[in-house]
Amino acid sequence: MQLDRLVAFHKTIGDPTRIRIISLLAAKPWNGQALAGKLGLTAPTITHHLKKLREINVVYERREKNTIYFYLNKSVITHQADALIKLFQFEKGADEVEVTNEEAAKIIDNFIGADGKLKNIPAQRKKKLIIFRHIVKGLKEGKKYEEKELNDYIKRYFDDYATIRREFIINHFMYRENNIYELNPEEMWAK
């Protein structure tokens, strides 16, 4: 997840009225008129806030006959909360182990051949992440990569580009939206 998307998400939900709407939608779906009545606001005000929440995919709507009901997209809120927690985790977890530069260099030498190609993907997570960090360092921060362009880049290291590309997403090295890939800030990368 990109840092700017994380910031935009939290800026949008940072409004007290939007928090109240989210709180109500957490229990059950509501229509706009009912939300306006419950919160003591006008329908246009509710429409404005719901539009902002739809823009960040926190709410979605379903029509039932002539009434539109709004639902909370709980998975988006959970995902954003997890991303924020991961960004600010300062203490080492049980599986996080400090690796020296010498150890990392040794691991890279063991798995990357003289031709620069990856011999095989390490089974051990610690080694795997060191290799992925090595590979991803050649990508430019802030640049958007089309899937084919990213595949071509990965093929320089390993023929099974789909596996590596999937690992980049799983381990938060990159963010994907509509088959466009972008590097996440290094602080968000799996450790």
TrEMBL record:
Domain HTH arsR-type: 1-92
UniProt entry keywords in alphabetical sequence: DNA-binding, Transcription, Transcription regulation
Domain of life: Bacteria
Cross-referenced Pfam families: DUF2087 (PF09860), HTH_5 (PF01022)
SMART domains per record: HTH_ARSR
GO molecular function, one term: DNA-binding transcription factor activity
CDD domains per record: HTH_ARSR
PANTHER family: TRANSCRIPTIONAL REGULATOR, ARSR FAMILY
Protein name from the UniProt record: DUF2087 domain-containing protein
